[in-house]
Amino acid sequence: MSRKNKFAFFIMLILSMGILVFELRSVNMVHFWHDLLQMNWWWLLFAVFIMIFQLCIEGVIMQVLTNDGHTHLSYHNAVRIPFIEQLFNSITPFSSGGQPAELIAMMQSGVEAGKASSLLLMKFVIYQMAVLVNFVLTMFVGFSYVAERFSGIAWLILLGFVTHLVTIATLLMIMFWYRFTKRLLQIVMKPVSWFVSAERYQSIMKNLDRKIDTFYEEGQQLKKEKTRMIKAVILTLIQLLFYYSIPYFILLALGQFHANLFNVMSMHVMIVMITSIFPIPGGTGGAEYSFRTLFSTFLPNASQLVLGMLLWRFITYYVGMFSGVVMLAVPAHKEKQLDNKD
Q: What is the pTM of this model?
């Protein structure tokens, strides 16, 4: 990691420690330690395993999207990518550092930069669509309950939903309405020319045009290979199902066996929607608030609620972050690629 990334890493650790102290300020520490010592550690370890396992599934997704007969990505190199992404998503605002880190990891494996960039955009589209599908399904189950009891949270959830919808719509427009998107880009970006030099504006537009072109070309290729797309979509849905189930096993670790798996997963889907709109790395602050609010129905005890939140945050955030540091230290195997020309 660069010095800047190391600094961000330690800042996030300090910020998290501050949130920990803040959350514990009104908790009876005798009850808190009792709940911690009485916890079923096997269920907790299983939750950690699920977190790591779903990232390993993402490694398979990377292979499915990349290995097309011209480009080859081994599982050793593919599995590094989601862990490294997790690390840089965790230390950058709006998770903006994840994709550039993935791109570097793929290039280290020998995948050409333009192709790697397009594949990562395609993976992003598939992932966002899978998140959206899961959210729409949970809307019919848990959203009315949340809206009735937590109106403030409901508005945050809807804002997250709109953000995801706009992102997906933009990328799908590139795939299916290429010329229209190019014209729309010229209109949308016109105000930028009022604030930057003509040279800088042309540079920005050329860069955006190039990204749209490469994404469109890769999208057209993948649309022809429906088997690969279907495999990637199915694997992404499976990956998300595992990820969304993590709070359920935390509840089991805390002895809350009355919790319904589907209801817990629905609540976690909504938390992911809320977290995505917070600019602070990892959605820090918003993630904790939304978990405490939504999971208060499963953990009415104040000390258990805070403990559950801390365990959830540790598993879904810090396990990925620290495992990403480990994977960053594992060198990629430089692979010889086949000729990309037909």
A: 0.81
